[in-house]
């Protein structure tokens, strides 16, 4: 009879835990954390080259200062008097299409269109007025240094394949069509390399979460230990523009009701 819950990730045999078929006791002390992440996500152990590439991906995503929505959400929730797991949870909930989501969207774009020419892909996005995930950056207008580093490492390790070629060709094609450079950003570069490693695009958000959680934990801990609860860091007078009504009289009818 088919059972109601199914899993292929880990199991217990003879009172011991096995992850993807390997005895967990044997993995402890023999695998790096990155190798264990690769094993649990992909089902197989990485080669040395795959482990190095995966390390580069995870390090790229680990932290990006205090301004991203996830960090503001996480620290605000800690400031409200909540424990770390609630703050980290709030941070994860702030991830979305505009924050972290571009990685999965770019992986999908590359994997679903790998047989198509870059000019066809770019035309179809631009004609519909859609933004192409993995391209453009608020500050980096010529090169995203993080993306460049990812490509450099992918070349050194032999992972600069068809997805990396396509992402670079799309970048050139955008410039040709728009007459303006929109750089391959860090999400575009990681999307290409994660695709080279064989990660399914539906794991894109998962990869992002795995990469960014350590940064979120650090921020929640810092907020918890360094700041007072309900710490007031917003100067309303200077930083907030009030767009509502000026003070006004409550109509007499409402006063009578009291
Ligand atoms: C990252 C991003 C939000 C920066 O936006 P921005 O600061 O408004 O970008 P810019 O000021 O450089 O460019 C604005 C112009 O480029 C266009 N543009 C920017 N990114 C684009 C993209 N990825 N695809 C198509 N057009 C894009 C805008 O539509 C706008 O066009 P216009 O001048 O004809 O009106 C934007 O590039 C984007 O949405 N990229 C896709 C999502 C993504 O990869 N996010 C991860 C960022 S690390």
How would you characterize this protein structure?
The protein is 57% helix and 4% strand. The protein is mainly α. It folds into two domains: 1-46, no CATH class; 47-226, Orthogonal Bundle (Cytochrome p450-Terp, domain 2), CATH 1.10.230. The radius of gyration is 23 Å and the shape is globular. Bound molecules: coenzyme A (COA). Residues 102, 131-138, 182, 185-187 line the site of coenzyme A (COA).
Helices and strands in order:
Layout: E1 10-13, E2 16-19, E3 22-23, H1 24-27, H2 33-42, H3 48-61, H4 69-79, H5 84-94, H6 101-112, H7 118-127, H8 145-157, H9 162-178, H10 186-196, H11 204-226, H12 236-239, H13 252-257
Antiparallel strand pairs: 1-2, 2-3
Helix pairs in contact: 3-8, 3-10, 3-11, 4-5, 4-11, 5-11, 6-10, 7-9, 8-10, 9-10
Bound molecules: coenzyme A.
Give the ordered list of helices and strands.
Answer: EEEHHHHHHHHHHHHH
CATH class of the largest domain: Mainly Alpha
- Contiguous uncertain segments of 5+ residues: none
Euclidean distance between termini CA atoms: 67 Å
Spatial shape: globular
Assembly type of the chains comes to single chain
Q: Please name the CATH topology of the largest domain.
A: Cytochrome p450-Terp, domain 2
Number of strands: 3
Largest sheet: 3 strands, antiparallel
Strand content: under 5%
Report the radius of gyration as a whole number of Å. 23 Å
């Amino acid at each position: 009879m088919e059972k109601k819950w199914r899993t292929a990730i880990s199991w217990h045999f003879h009172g011991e835990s096995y992850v993807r078929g390997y005895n967990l006791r044997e993995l402890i002390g023999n695998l790096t954390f990155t190798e264990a992440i690769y094993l649990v996500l992909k089902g197989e152990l990485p080669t040395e080259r795959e482990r190095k590439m995966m390390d580069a991906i995870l390090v790229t995503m680990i932290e990006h200062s205090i301004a991203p929505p996830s960090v503001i959400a996480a620290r605000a929730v800690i400031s409200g008097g909540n424990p770390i797991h609630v703050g980290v949870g709030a941070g994860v909930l702030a991830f979305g299409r505009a924050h972290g989501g571009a990685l999965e969207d770019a992986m999908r774009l590359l994997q679903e269109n790998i047989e198509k020419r870059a000019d066809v892909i770019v035309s179809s996005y631009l004609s519909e007025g859609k933004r192409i995930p993995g391209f453009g950056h608020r500050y980096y207008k010529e090169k995203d240094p993080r993306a460049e580093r990812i490509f450099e490492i992918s070349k050194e390790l032999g992972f600069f394949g068809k997805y990396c070629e396509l992402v670079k060709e799309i970048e050139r094609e955008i410039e040709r069509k728009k007459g303006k450079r929109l750089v391959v950003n860090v999400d575009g570069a990681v999307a290409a390399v994660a695709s080279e490693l064989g990660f399914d695009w539906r794991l894109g958000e998962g990869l992002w979460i795995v990469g960014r959680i350590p940064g979120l934990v650090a921020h929640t801990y810092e907020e918890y230990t360094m700041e007072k609860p309900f710490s007031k860091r917003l100067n309303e007078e200077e930083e907030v523009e009030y767009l509502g009504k000026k003070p006004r009289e409550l109509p007499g009818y409402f006063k009578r009701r009291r």
